[in-house]
Amino acid sequence: MRRWTSNFAGPVEISGQFHCTTDGDGVGVSVWVNGQQRFRKLLGGGNGNPISDNFDFFETVQPGTTIDFAVDPGPGVNINYDATVVTATVRKAPQ
What we know:
Jelly Rolls, 4-stranded antiparallel beta sheet, 3-stranded antiparallel beta sheet, elongated
């Protein structure tokens, strides 16, 4: 998991990508804002799941708001081959 904590109040754009390999049984990826899930996908592991997915949404933050980018072992709960690249950007949204 990676965490960003806001030091200002206002709208932000949260964007990026999760990308895993074709090996293994897949992974679960998610983005959380103050403990509330805002994005969730299953990647890889066959079963027709994509190996990458993008996210892009807006959120209003306050000082102390946390945004978490998480990867978990997915429904198979097998951690072998679960390496996942996470690219994330949090930027002030145009007003």
